[in-house]
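Continuing the batch. This is chain 6 of the set; chains 1 through 5 are on the previous pages. Same settings as before, nothing changed between runs. Recording input and output for traceability.
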Amino acid sequence: MARRPTDIVHLKLRLPEHLRRRIEAAAVKGKTSMNSEIIERLEQTFQKEDSIARERRIAEEAASLAAKGVTGTVEQRLTEILDRRSGGTPPGPTGGYPFKWEGKNE
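Output for chain 6:
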């Protein structure tokens, strides 16, 4: 029978002692189990990879639009990337980003 994505799987894992100690220390500091610490760190790594891939697709789309001279959409897409990276808070005292767009707008 095939496993479901929600199934819990027991896994025997070999890792260097220095890494096990770091995981243990992080788990103690976070008041969690080593298992939970490992799972959380793996999830964060995959989320970061997913975010980078999503940003890359947006940047490629923005570059394609810029090559066609559609700069309004380029600004919008790059602003989305910057918003995500900054947690939704635009930098600068006026809330704007330090870039200027020239060329044909939509």
